[in-house]
Structure formats: structure tokens, C-alpha cells
Amino acid sequence: MTAVLALDSVGHTYRGSAAPVVADVSLGVEAGHSLALVGESGAGKTTLLRLLLGLARPTTGTVRFDGDPLALGDRAQMRRFRRSVQCVFQDPYASLDPRQRVSRIVAEPLRSLGVATVAEARAKVAEALEQVGLPADAASRYPHEFSGGQRQRIAIARAIVCDPRVLLADEPVSALDVTTRVKVVDLLAELKRERGLTIVMVSHDLSVVAALCEGTAVLERGRVVEQGETRDVLGSPGHPYTRRLLDSVPRLPV
Q: Which PROSITE patterns match (predicted)?
């Protein structure tokens, strides 16, 4: 089966830097599956997410969407790509405009893509808010009236409102308390099942990875050192770096 999103021998070097931040990365995720990108800070996870989002061009290699090279200058392909691939950002406090009502925030992708009338957008916003577990009156309120977990639900509603096929998530629960993290992870898993979403997630939290993602790719200094099914990568790691990551997870004393 062709991967929905894939990287073929991708490398990326930021302007002014001598060394690549990611090098020779090849990975992909099939429709309806979920993939985690894990590694310590500076490993290149967020850069890979930017490449998968089409926010940066690879210095070497190819980003593929539905098997075709992603051409950032191809307006027709990029329009299809933007509707199919949406993102949930790390910080729900920073990713929502405090001056806008929730209805306008959630409808933003519909406006930018021009894919719904005003009446259709209103109905889609209501449907998205209901699906993420927020009350109907949330649409008329402002972000400051919600808790951190509720704000992340608003961000998820914005991401799913245009019925994307792929959801890219950059540390989607790291800014939340432990109890709220569990609820948001459960919500993402439910959306994946109900909508057939493909999910690519950057995370430091291996418990979140184990709960949500079928596949895992481990990055060290910009290179994938291990990848496979999550249960194998986390259960029987083959690379010393993966074992060090697992050993660094805090554990309660017995």
C-alpha cells in the first residue's frame, strides 16, 4: 500500500548552518495508521514535521504525498494537500487567537481553503465542536474562558473541521496536566477510529506514544536509528539510543 505521507532519503540544512539538522531520513505512514517521531530535544523531530507539513523544502531527498513528490510551487497539488493535511500545535495557549470567538477560530481552515458557505461553515463548526466533546455554546465564547485541555480540544476541532485525511501533531499534550493528557489522547484515538485519520505525532512522552501510535521512528542527531511497530521498538529496542530513551523514563520507586 502506498504511504499517504512519506520521506525518501530526506535531509535538511538550515540557512547559515554547516551541518544538516536531519540527514537521509526515509519513513512513511499508510492511510489510517499512526506514526510517532521520538527522540531528545534537537533530534530533528520538529524539522521533519515541518517538512511533512510542506512548511520547508528538503535540501536533499523527496517528500511524497499519495506517492507523488510534494511540489510546493504546484498550486493545485498544494490546495489538495492543505485540505488533506492539518496540524495540532503544542501550546493551546499560544495557538488560539484570544481576540476571536471559538466559532471563527475553528472555521479558519474552511475560510482559507474556500470550501464552505457561511451556513455550511456554521454547521461544520458545530459538528467539530460536538465531536471533540465541547458544548454548543462554546462557539460563541473566547479562548480565555476555557481550561488548557478544552483549548486543545478547540485546536483539534479546528484541525478536523475540513475533514482532513492526515493529522500532524507536535507534542499535542505536553503542555497539559497528566489527567488532561489522558483525556486528549483518548480523544485522538477515538477520532482516528471514527474518521479513519492518519496521525503523525512528535512526542517526548513514550506512554502517549504507546497508547496512540502503531508505529514509531526513533531519531538521534537528525537520523532515524530505529523504526518499526511501537510494541517492538519500545518492548524490545534494538538500538542503544532507544534503550537509553527508555531508561530515562522516570519510574516510581518500588
A: ABC_TRANSPORTER_1, ABC_TRANSPORTER_2
Taking the whole predicted model, whether its pTM rises above 0.70 is answered as yes
> Per-residue confidence of the chain (254 residues) as pLDDT tens digits?
679 999 999 999 999 888 999 999 999 999 999 999 999 888 999 999 999 999 999 999 999 999 999 999 999 999 999 999 999 988 888 889 999 999 999 999 999 999 899 999 999 999 999 999 999 899 999 999 999 899 999 999 999 999 999 999 998 888 788 888 889 899 999 999 999 999 999 998 888 999 999 999 999 999 999 999 999 999 999 999 999 999 887 665 55
Pairing of β 85-88 and β 60-65: unpaired
Query: CATH second-level architecture of 5-97+165-247?
Result: 3-Layer(aba) Sandwich (3.40)
Q: Give the pairing type, strands 198-202 and 166-170.
A: parallel
Sign of CA dihedral 126, 129, 132, 138: negative
